[in-house]
Amino acid sequence: MSGVGSSLKGRLILITGCTGGIGQATAKAFARVGCSIAIHYNAASSKAKAETLINHLKILAPPDVKPRFAAFQADLSRYDEARRLHAEVVSVLGNPDILFSNHGIAGPKIGPDGDIRDISPDIFEEVWRTNTGTSFLLAQLCVPYMESQHWGRIIFTSSVAAGNGGVIGPHYASSKSALHGLVHWLSLRYAKEGIPTPVLTSSSVTADTAMMANPSPEAKSKIPVGRLGKPDEMADIVLLLASNGYMTNKVIVADGGWTIGGF
């Protein structure tokens, strides 16, 4: 086995939000290179989708390895559920070598011309807790094992809203920009321990996800390549980031050219 991802053979990755578009595509990409995968799903109604994904991953896995796949349900708007998720993954599959924190919610959409009074503090806090708080907690829970073996990867899914305000609202945009600050601190602290921490900024322009299932013509018009991204394109980037121990403290913007430069 050679090429991107070949060094990851035998590693365990925890992917949150794994039954969504980006999550499923990423699970398939990591299965192809021989990784074991902890599949997280949020709603009980997604259990069948998670089980179907596991069956597909078994087919994709290389014949010379025996990766393990298991599904775990948790409501990641709650800290106690994030702790339970991590504990169950460790009990069933072991400690994750790679965390891809990909879950998140949008909350109410008020748009760039909305009224800030339409977002209550309770809504603001729920979106932050889900998008930022439990991502932080999962990283906190995963780091000690990664540090002990001097190898690990922590990757977050962000959004172009973190850099330009986006099309949803202040609650969502600010929760995603907070991930960028978290990445910068984690990278400065733990890169020397073999744990690079980049963030993939893409989700609000990715097709085939619930958040952008029916994009407006206005949203599409902002993208120079003329279309929304594909989950497979995002998965390729996650695989590259996990494979590269030198790429850290960076916001990787995959948005079809919507934004100019980095942020």
From TrEMBL:
Output the Gene3D superfamilies linked to this UniProt entry: NAD(P)-binding Rossmann-like Domain (3.40.50.720)
Q: Which organism is it from?
A: Laetiporus sulphureus 93-53
Q: Which GO terms describe its molecular function?
A: oxidoreductase activity, acting on the CH-OH group of donors, NAD or NADP as acceptor; quinone binding
- Segments traversing the membrane: none
* SUPFAM superfamilies assigned: NAD(P)-binding Rossmann-fold domains
- Keyword Coiled coil set for record: no
| Assigned protein family | Belongs to the short-chain dehydrogenases/reductases (SDR) family.
The identity of this protein, by name, is: 3-oxoacyl-reductase
What the entry lists under Pfam families is as follows: adh_short_C2 (PF13561)
In the record, biological process GO terms are: fatty acid biosynthetic process
Which UniProt keywords are listed? NADP
